[in-house]
Design goal:
heterodimer; A: 343 residues; mainly beta; 5-stranded antiparallel beta sheet; 3 helices; B: 726 residues; 22-stranded antiparallel barrel; 5-stranded mixed beta sheet; 4 helices; 3% helix; globular; disordered N terminus
């Protein structure tokens, strides 16, 4: 009987005093020697893109939304569109028509609208090889195709939602294009100069700024944190479509990157490992998915396994990982990196 | 008594002498004999479903009458009394609905702590588990907003994701659970399209002081305790109070992460009930309070300065109050009036914790959220039993006003007001036949003209008439056949109409242009009950059903580029199936077997065609109890198998959630003159924690498909003690 009442007392007491155990404290994180941390500001609305240089640790920034198309200074004659400007920014080919021909955008099928492949591959870009006829040493002529560019939502832009564009030629460093808004029949002509020290020259159809350049030379940065379009598979509709993301593109001039997430632990990466990597030319190897939106936490969380190798323009190897996406005020849009020169 | 013994408690008799309208109140002596002093004809009729016995006439002319009244107590064990769906108490065999009863004994034998523990052992109810939202119930393949859960006939409010969390309903003060599958919209209104689960709590008995304490503990750190007190203020005012606490420390299967698979929860509840009876009037006042705190931890993050994580606490408060009035005019008619005021609040509070220093501060304002729901319900029913007993008539009204608001539900929304009138005719053309047509007329503030001028609402026409027809044929004393047609109706909820959740990841909106869901349901059943001897009986139940739901409301993606979701009426949903139940009870053994097979067809209109999504689900449950009479103990073994569950992901690919077995063994007994009851045993002997699944999870386009679904926190070794102190 005593045993029974003792059991009763035990059970009843344990029920009343049971409570959530205090969470044990973590030891402070260990930072390996030579690790540099850098927090960059894109802002809560991602109003700023940031060019960053690993060698000097410096950065420059400007707005990612002030251009529509950009022209490459390289012999590749690449013309890119600003897919990161909004969710619908895209282009389609109308074939060899004239500006006086009527165009009805509502008749264009959804899968005809293209955006640039974020890998940087010109063959899968929206405007493709629009300058494909080399006439002489540094003179190319366009493919005579008319392209229709969708600049945004019609409810916001009205008659300026669509632009007809034809690339006429490239003569040395200068591009010549003709363009008009989709209901207009008389095109305007624009000369876009390019500069060898810059990757692209940026052009906006309806901006007061006119033609813009990158804030720093192409030899002064390695990665760009910006908004761009990524190919995303939409399970809900069983389709792959462009989706505007916030992520990292590498400098197309000489900078190489490799994504080692889930391949090797960041702490295990050394110079020997880096030298054994065979790099490709993709610009979006670092990309966007080093962060993920947690429904549970209602915020972005960093993939703890993210790890990257950067081979700078001068052949130096860096390992890098992201450690945060918020500043100390818990505002989003402040990616923080930790990186280390491998030597 | 069924075993031939005579009752050893006094039985109160109310005798009406017809000519003088005189009522005599008396009671039998200990031997069961009753003496009546009256003149005039009297007649004694024993109604197995009522508390009083109406004495009408008998041919005795003396001033003192001695009557031997042998009351054959209703066989509550074989044919329990029910109240759901009818307004008079009726046994299962008398009830026109195919109703299922889970009694207190069965609830106790499972060592069930909450409603999900009970429903888990029911073969034709499936449970869905979510670590934060909780446990949801699915009947006949239908779940979510289409299953109505009642507490003593009053709806429980506070749906998360369209579901009531059945793990939030403790069993400590529950007398029985009554379940009716299929639409009960005629009597219980909206949300009852798939079926009803009615939780009947204990009534205060009016005896002298009773104090009971129950406790429960297991190896995964569930610690539960509750105490109930029953007493009476005076002879006609019994009261009961039940308070309790349930604590779960949480369970994690992966110590490498900070996130727990099963979240820690603490629940506190208190129920108060009192009944006042005087002559022909009875009042019942009930108040039920419940609160739950759930903690959800995020994974730890390292920003090279410190480790940090986020703690989200979900606080649920539920306060349900009801007043029931029963006014008996005479032996044939009475009025029942039930009023309820329910409050539900769910608050989310997120903090950011420095895991190195332990410092914790409130996180961003957008991560704090409070959602409130209020329900006012008034239902009155006039009940009439024809003296010829050929007909019962129930005419009633049902008024409901529900408002809700929160961060994602604008305060300005007018809520929903629903006023309905209903009538049920129960015709008994013969002793074998029961024919019950019913009709409900609804005036909804969103689907009909407003009845209260202060409230707006878009008048889209009247809500449809809601008819039903129940047929019951009693082939023999033991065998009853039933057939029914019921129309179901569910008006869109406040969330489906007014929700607004826009942030960087979400773009979810309510749709004020939704149409209500409607359904047609057919059920045919056979129910066989036979008492073989004083200690043994057998029962068998077979039913088939067909549900056809139109304009089913679901959350649909409208624009992939902007991630725009809204609630839409889509296509048609059909479920068909059959249930089989068999039971045998003897003095020492109980056997019960039940099985359910359901076929579901979703028809979703596409641009040029209709997409058919078909899948089958099934469950089998087998229960064996061996009673050791001399020791006053019993061993109960519960086995159930849930077949693989199929469905369709948003990309229209078929997913499969693996099947699983759950086996429990529970030994129970009583000691010390039945003052101490004990139970110990093992739940989930096989230790099933999760099953394989290729169902896509999460609503982010970047979320990978999940590969397992939680089933249980694991194998439980438990001990439960019940003390009757007075």
């Amino acid at each position: 009987m005593k045993f029974i009442f003792a059991s009763i007392l035990f059970i009843t007491t344990s029920c009343f005093i049971s409570c959530e155990k205090p969470e044990p404290l973590y030891p402070a994180p260990i930072i390996s020697a030579g690790t540099v941390t850098q927090q960059l500001e894109m802002g809560s609305s991602y109003g700023t893109q940031v060019y960053f240089d690993f060698e000097t640790g410096t950065f420059a920034s400007n707005s990612p939304y002030t251009w529509d198309i950009a022209f490459s200074s390289s012999a590749e004659n690449k013309i890119i569109i600003n897919g990161g400007k909004n969710g619908v920014f895209s282009a389609c080919s109308l074939g060899k028509i004239s500006f006086s021909d009527l165009v009805d955008p509502s008749t264009i099928e959804k899968d005809e609208w293209k955006h640039d492949n974020p890998s940087g591959d010109i063959d899968s870009s929206a405007l493709g090889h629009s300058l494909n006829r080399k006439i002489s040493g540094n003179y190319w002529e366009g493919d005579s195709c008319m392209y229709l560019i969708k600049l945004g939502e019609e409810m916001d832009l009205g008659d300026k939602t669509f632009v007809k564009l034809r690339v006429i030629n490239r003569n040395g460093a200068n591009y010549l294009i003709e363009w008009s808004y989709w209901k207009d029949q008389m095109p305007k002509h624009s000369f876009i100069p390019t500069y060898e020290e810059k990757n692209f020259t940026y052009f906006c159809f309806d901006c007061s700024q006119g033609i813009l350049n990158e804030p720093i030379d192409k030899d002064e940065w390695d990665i760009l944190l910006t908004r761009y379009k990524e190919e995303i598979y939409y399970a809900q509709v069983n389709q792959t479509e462009g989706y505007t993301v916030t992520g990292v593109l590498s400098n197309p001039t000489n900078t190489k990157t490799m994504n080692l997430t889930n391949v090797i632990e960041y702490d295990d990466i050394d110079l020997n490992y880096a030298k054994g990597i065979v790099f490709n030319n993709h610009l979006n190897n670092i990309g966007y998915d080093w962060k993920n939106f947690s429904i549970q936490a209602n915020k972005y969380t960093i993939n703890p396994k993210n790890a990257y190798i950067i081979k700078s323009r001068r052949g130096l190897f860096y390992k890098m990982k992201f450690v945060d996406f918020y500043n100390d005020k818990d505002q989003t849009g402040y990616p923080k990196m930790a990186y280390q020169l491998l030597q | 008594m069924p075993d031939g013994s005579k009752p050893n408690i006094p039985i109160s008799i109310s005798a009406n002498v017809i000519e003088s309208d005189k009522r005599i109140l008396t009671k039998t002596d200990k031997t069961g004999y009753l003496s009546l002093d009256c003149a005039g004809p009297i007649k004694l009729i024993v109604d197995p479903g009522s508390d009083t016995i109406d004495v009408h006439e008998q041919g005795f002319g003396t001033s003192q009458i001695k009557i031997d009244i042998h009351l054959v107590s209703h066989d509550q064990e074989l044919d329990p009394i029910t109240i759901t769906g009818t307004f008079f108490r009726k046994s299962i065999s008398s009830n026109p609905y195919n109703i299922r009863v889970i009694g207190k004994k069965k609830i106790t034998s499972m060592a069930a702590q909450n409603l999900s523990d009970v429903l888990q052992n029911e073969s034709n109810i499936q449970l869905g588990q979510d670590a934060v939202i909780g446990t949801s119930a699915i009947m006949q393949g239908i779940g979510g907003n289409d299953i109505k859960i009642l507490l003593n006939g009053i709806p429980i409010i506070g749906r998360i994701g369209g579901n009531i969390d059945v793990s939030q309903i403790p069993m400590s003060n529950v007398e029985r659970i009554e379940i009716i599958e299929g639409p009960m919209s005629v009597i219980y209104g909206s949300d009852a399209l798939g079926g009803i689960i009615n939780i009947i709590t204990k009534e205060p008995l009016g005896k002298s002081l009773q104090l009971k304490v129950n406790s429960y503990a297991d190896n995964i750190e569930n610690y539960n305790v509750n105490a109930s007190v029953q007493t009476r203020i005076n002879k006609s005012l019994p009261i009961s109070l039940n308070v309790g606490r349930q604590f779960f420390r949480g369970k994690d299967f992966d110590n490498a992460t900070r996130t727990l698979d099963w979240k820690p929860k603490e629940k506190i509840f208190a129920d108060f009930n009192t009944i006042y009876k005087h002559k022909n009037i009875s009042f019942r006042l009930g108040s039920n309070f419940f609160t739950e705190e759930l903690t959800d931890r995020s994974n730890a993050e390292n920003n090279l300065i410190t480790y940090f994580g986020y703690n989200s606490k979900y606080y649920t408060y539920r306060w349900d109050n009801q007043i029931q009035l029963n006014l008996k005019f005479n032996n044939y008619s009475q009025f029942q009036w039930q009023n309820a005021f329910n409050i539900y609040t769910r608050r989310k509070s997120t903090t950011k914790r420095n895991l190195v220093t332990g410092e914790e501060n409130a996180f961003r304002p957008q991560d704090q959220d409070t959602t409130n729901f209020r329900l006012i319900n008034s239902r009155g029913v006039y009940l009439y039993k024809a003296p010829s007993r050929k007909m019962d008539l129930n005419i009633g009204f049902d008024f409901t006003h529900e408002i809700g608001n929160g961060k994602r539900i604008p305060v300005s929304n007018p809520g929903i007001t629903d006023f309905a009138a209903f009538a049920t005719f129960d015709l008994h053309p013969s002793s074998q036949w029961d024919i019950q047509p019913s009709l409900r007329v609804v005036n909804n503030s969103r689907y009909g003209s407003s009845i209260i001028k202060d409230y707006g609402g878009t008048a889209k026409g009247f809500a449809p008439l809601i008819p039903s027809l129940q047929l019951k044929y009693k082939l023999s004393k033991h065998l009853v056949f039933r057939g029914s047609y019921s129309k179901g109706y569910r008006a869109p909820s406040i969330k489906e109409l007014f929700f607004n959740f826009v942030d960087i990841q979400h773009n979810v909106h309510g749709n004020e242009n939704l149409d209500p869901e409607t359904s047609d349901n057919f059920i045919i059943s056979a129910d066989y009950r036979h008492r073989l001897s004083a200690h043994s009986f057998t029962n068998f139940n077979f039913s088939i059903f067909n549900n056809n739901i139109r304009n089913k409301i679901t959350l649909g993606l409208q624009d992939a580029l902007t991630n725009y979701y809204t609630y839409i009426n889509v296509g048609r949903f059909r479920s068909q199936g059959l249930n089989v139940k068999f039971g045998f009870k003897s003095k020492q053994m109980n056997y019960s077997f039940s099985s359910t097979l359901i076929s579901v067809v979703d028809e979703i209109p596409q641009e040029d065609s209709v997409l058919h999504q078909n899948y089958l689900n099934g469950q089998v449950a087998f229960n064996v109890t061996r009673k050791f009479i001399k020791k006053n103990t019993a061993l109960n073994v519960i086995t159930r198998y849930t077949s693989p569950t199929f469905g369709y992901n948003e990309d229209l690919t078929r997913y499969k959630i693996g099947g699983f077995y759950l086996v429990d063994a529970i030994y129970s007994g009583k000691l010390y003159k039945q003052k101490i009851g004990y139970q110990f045993g093992i739940k989930n002997i096989l230790g099933i924690t999760s099953v394989n699944s290729n169902r896509s999870q999460g609503n982010s386009t970047h979320a990978p498909a999940g590969n397992s679904v939680l089933v249980s926190p694991g194998r439980l070794f438990f001990l439960s003690l019940n003390l009757n102190l007075f």
